[in-house]
Design goal:
The complex is a heterodimer of chains A (547) and B (397). Chain A has 547 residues and is an alpha/beta fold. In chain A, 39% of the residues lie in helices and 25% in strands. Chain A has 24 helices and 20 strands. In chain A, the strands form 4 sheets. Chain A has a 6-stranded mixed sheet, sandwiched between helices. In chain A, strands 16-17-18-13-19-20 form a 6-stranded mixed sheet, with helices on both faces. The two termini of chain A are 47 Å apart. Chain B has 397 residues and is mainly α. Chain B folds into 3 domains: 56 residues, no CATH class; 40 residues; 223 residues, MetI-like (MetI-like fold). The longest helix of chain B has 38 residues. Chain B is globular, with a radius of gyration of 26 Å. The model of chain B has no long low-confidence stretch (mean pLDDT 86). Classes of the chains: A alpha/beta (547), B mainly alpha (397). Chains A and B meet through helix 15 of A and helix 12 and helix 13 of B.
Chain lengths: 547, 397
């Protein structure tokens, strides 16, 4: 059988600093009809660039400098705009990472769905509408007859992602490029999207390129996997071979990431006073309660992981503890002493004791301040150190986060990588010499290798400095590696809490069970087994949402 | 009419032929292959306009009837001015690229020609304004016996070499008044803009940070002020102020600075508040708040540096608007008072000469000189602002 897509010696360059710099250095790729190729690698590896190049397209400021892209015998690089117009949308489709940002908010879903088939003359609007509803049904969207007539903002993120997959399918293309379609979704929603994408790709015998940085996801979706590193191919193999016997060291290191595990700590002594104690906190935005009677303790030198889907109230709990959102009822105590609920009423020392590390380091660091200023400010603010002494303290902090002081002191955040920025966020929190740090999804925006480095750093710092962490995350793999105790939240309530081993050993609360079983595993059969176990028809929103 | 139709038909046909020829000659290079018909029409139209411009430029300056051909004369001046400006900007940029510190050299290398022209204009105006007293050949209020001397300095045409740009209707040297006008108009505009930015900017950031009733109070107040047409509002307040100025013995110009600064600060407030609101939701502001930082630190150390790019761009535009408002008020007679030289007043006083344009282009130049000085600075500032906006948006991408 001949190849549907053949990419040979693809070289792509990007323009920066008035010069063309290589992004992709000669990648080959072959895809047969009905085959799914997983492209994985860290951010900056060139996954998306290759995905777009497979459509003969490059982003602004990027050019294909060498190589060929051939789709079903047509050379896409040299093709005229008219030829490409005929292919894109009709025979090659693209599903973007953020469906919410990719749908036009001014048009109904079905109108956007029928646009491509009508434009390409594949089918009439009425036929295509009918087909769209049929596809929605196949993708197990709730109310398939009616959902298409809604606007994008009236539909949830996971449903939008499926509607976008349906849209890509509208002309029955031969090739679909999925660019991280589930990265922005919760684990429980991710499963629905994964299952429906896989089913529909199989049903129509569509070839696909599946781009992701999540190995467990790619294991479920792909027939073969290609690993990329900084624009070079590391290796390519059949999924099962790749998972069981990776050849290259880099691939092995990727596979090993999830093995980081902290030793279990001794149980907490009876009668010890918790560092932070949250008692019966109920909080509201406006008049709507979003937290209901939340209580838990965080003890010295311990990590309490707060898990749950988006909207479950994890971050709101953090806002209550920091005092940004004074709770309506309840109490927050620090070392046994109740804290004023509003941060403005807390003393400087109370503020110093509790620090926060944010999810997105880009917005957490002032882009116009140098690293020295960012870390130096809390040092000066709390301890009053100035001049040489302040500089020494900042250097010490930079050493602690494993960044070379002389090299980074005068840099701006924009000159650092994602992982380095997150380390600066940690250093800023440490600069206040706190007892307690809230980590709000600190690793979820990072690549797995980098995230692991951050987790190890946080664990080391805890051992050295005796810090307590409240670790907010939706990623259970992270919880397994770093937490001592777990608090499971849903709809603003604590569903289950206790030591990690207790929460993670059956019997679980039904919701904990759902969360745990939804975490993809590095086993190609995992999704199949799970679907059989749950019963294929029960996977829709009805089952997940109402549990 | 038929000529017009013929030209249109030729252009449309030419566009088609141009694209076809391009495709055949380059054996279907992507540039011609993917060229739309509209694009081809644009190229042909531009070429036709260029040919017409060259033809028009070389028309005789004097008509058979003995009258000057005013259109050609003004067109030649415009083209010559454009060429001189381009060359000056190019040389200025070249100079900047070769001289100075590594930082400024890099800045000049990344500068488009338009921005170089803008910077050159602004520097020139600043220089002239600061050293007006030393540069101007005569005083701004000095009256000579020869009134209405025509510009150009050619006695045969009614000029006088002592007054290269002529004299006005009561015999003051126009060149000197232009130079002093830079000092008065630009200087006052600069002070006014700074004041407007200080007031509007700090209140805007304060409203964005504190929100609540203060924000409501300030914003609604600003809405009320903005609901009144600004020029009419300024005129109204200036009329009231002229009474007070006489009573208190304070120059009217001081009142004008405050009035225009107040009116323009509402626009700055709006911008500063909008930009500030986008910044205060950032996590680094939250981190600073949770650290226990005071309001002053938040506004000046955390918010202001991040709002610098849009504010600077707005400063350039606002400066032009303030400057035009002052010129307008002076033109209406309530702005900068004689005998101080001011470009707005100069345009008003010499405006009747524009009627002579068709017969004596050099005589009509008198009001255009001041108007041109205003236009040139406005264009120059806008070029620089465009460049800065482009740079700052490029950084964010």
């Amino acid at each position: 059988m001949s190849n549907l897509l053949t990419i040979k010696g693809l070289k792509i360059q990007g323009r920066s600093d008035e010069a063309w710099n290589p992004i992709i250095n000669g990648v080959d790729l072959e895809l047969k009809k009905g085959e799914v190729l997983g492209l994985i690698g860290e951010s900056g590896a060139g996954k998306s660039t290759i995905g777009l190049a497979a459509m003969g397209y490059t982003r602004d400021g990027v050019r294909i400098s060498d190589g060929s892209v051939e789709f079903d015998g047509i050379d896409l690089i040299g093709a005229s705009a008219a030829v490409k117009r005929g292919l894109l949308g009709k025979r090659i489709a693209y599903v973007a990472q953020s469906a919410a940002a990719s749908f036009n908010p001014a048009h109904k879903l079905i109108d956007q769905h029928t646009e491509a088939p009508v434009q390409h003359g594949v089918s009439a609007r009425s036929e295509s509408t009918k087909d769209g509803i049929e596809l929605y049904r196949k993708l197990r969207l709730p109310n398939p007859d009616e959902i298409g007539f809604r606007y994008p903002h009236q539909v949830s993120g996971g449903q939008l992602q499926r509607a976008m997959t349906a849209m890509a399918m509208s002309c029955r293309p031969d090739l679909i490029i999925f660019d991280e379609p589930t990265t922005a979704l919760d684990v429980t929603t991710q499963i629905e999207v994964l299952a429906s994408i896989r089913e529909i790709v199989e049903e129509f015998d569509t070839a696909a390129i599946y781009i992701t940085h999540d190995l467990a996801v790619v294991a479920q979706m792909a027939d073969k996997i290609k690993v990329l590193l900084r624009g070079d191919e590391v290796e390519e193999a059949d999924t099962r071979t790749m998972l069981s016997a990776p050849k290259k060291d880099y691939t092995k290191s990727l596979w090993a990431v999830r093995e980081f595990q902290r030793p279990e700590k001794a149980p907490i002594a009876d009668g010890s006073v918790p560092v932070v104690s949250v008692r019966g906190v109920t909080a509201a935005y406006g008049t709507t309660d979003v937290l209901h009677d939340v209580s838990f303790d965080i003890h010295a030198g311990r990590t309490v992981a707060v898990v749950g889907e988006s909207g479950s109230g994890k971050s709101t709990t953090a806002r209550c503890i920091t005092g940004l959102l004074p709770p309506r009822m309840g109490e927050i105590a620090f070392d046994g002493q109740p804290l004023p609920l509003d941060y403005r009423k807390r003393t400087k020392d109370q503020l110093r004791q509790a620090q926060m590390i944010y999810q997105i380091a880009d917005t957490a660091l002032n882009p116009r301040q140098t690293i020295g200023q960012i870390i130096g400010r809390p040092v000066e603010f709390y301890s009053g150190l100035k001049g040489v002494k302040k500089r020494e303290r900042v250097n010490e902090l930079l050493d602690q986060i494993e960044l070379e002081p002389s090299k980074y002191f005068n840099r701006l955040p924009s000159e650092l990588s994602g992982g380095q920025k997150q380390r600066i966020g940690i250093a800023r929190a440490l600069a206040a010499e706190p007892k307690f740090i809230i980590c709000d999804e600190v690793t979820s925006a990072l690549d797995q290798l980098v995230a692991e480095g951050i987790l190890r750093l946080l664990a080391d710092l805890q051992d050295k400095l005796g810090l307590s962490y409240m670790f907010i995350t939706h990623d259970l793999a992270t919880v397994k590696s770093i937490a001592d105790e777990v608090v499971v939240m849903k709809d603003g309530k604590v569903v289950e809490q206790g030591p990690k081993t207790q929460v993670f050993t059956p019997p679980h609360h039904a919701y904990t069970d759902l969360l745990l079983s939804s975490v993809p595993e590095m086993d190609p059969d995992w999704l199949n087994n799970l679907l059989t176990e749950r019963g294929v028809d029960n996977i829709g929103d009805a089952a997940v949402g109402k549990m | 009419m038929t000529g017009f139709v013929v030209v249109i038909v030729v252009l449309f046909g030419g566009a088609f032929a141009f694209r076809l020829a391009g495709q055949t000659l380059t054996s279907n290079a992507p540039k011609f292959r993917d060229m739309s018909y509209g694009g081809a029409f644009g190229y042909v139209l531009a070429a036709a306009l260029f040919i017409w411009a060259v033809w028009f430029y070389f028309q005789p300056k004097v008509l058979d009837t003995g009258f000057p051909n005013a259109g050609v004369v003004f067109f030649r001046w415009a083209v010559q001015g454009l060429i001189i400006a381009s060359i000056a900007a190019f040389l200025f940029r070249l100079f900047g690229q070769l001289v100075g510190t590594a930082g400024t050299r890099k800045l000049f290398r990344s500068m488009p020609l338009t921005a170089a022209f803008g910077v050159l204009v602004i520097l020139t105006y600043a220089f002239v304004a600061v050293f007006a007293g030393a540069i101007a050949p005569h005083g701004q209020a000095e009256i000579f016996s020869a009134a209405n001397v025509v510009a150009g300095g050619d006695p045969a045409l009614g000029g006088d070499p002592a007054f290269p740009l002529g004299t006005d209707q009561i015999g003051r040297d126009i060149l000197s008044r232009l130079i002093y006008g830079a000092q008065n108009t630009v200087g006052i505009a600069f002070v006014t803009t700074c004041l407007a930015f200080f007031v509007g900017g700090s209140l805007g950031f304060l409203a964005a940070t504190l929100r609540g009733w203060l924000d409501q109070l300030l914003s609604r107040g600003v809405d009320v002020l903005m609901a009144i047409p600004s020029l009419i509002f300024a005129l109204l307040l200036m009329t009231i102020a002229s009474v007070w100025a006489a009573e208190l013995g304070v120059p009217l110009t001081i009142f004008m600075i405050f009035i225009i600064a107040l009116i323009d600060s509402t626009r700055v407030y709006r911008l500063a508040r909008a930009v500030g609101q986008n910044i205060v939701v950032m996590d680094y502001i939250e981190a600073a708040k949770l650290r226990g930082e005071g309001l002053g630190y938040l506004v000046f150390k955390e918010i202001l540096p991040n709002a610098m790019a849009p504010l600077l761009a707005e400063f350039g535009l606002r400066f032009c608007f303030v400057f035009l408002t002052i010129a307008s008020l002076s033109f209406l007679g309530v702005g900068i008072q004689p005998p101080l030289a001011d470009w707005g007043t100069m345009v008003r006083d010499l405006a009747p000469f524009i009627n002579f344009a068709a017969f004596a282009p050099t005589a009509a130049v008198a009001p255009l000189l001041a108007a041109g000085a205003i236009a040139l600075l406005t264009v120059g500032v806008n070029f620089v602002v465009d460049w800065m906006l482009h740079k700052s948006s490029g950084l964010k991408e």
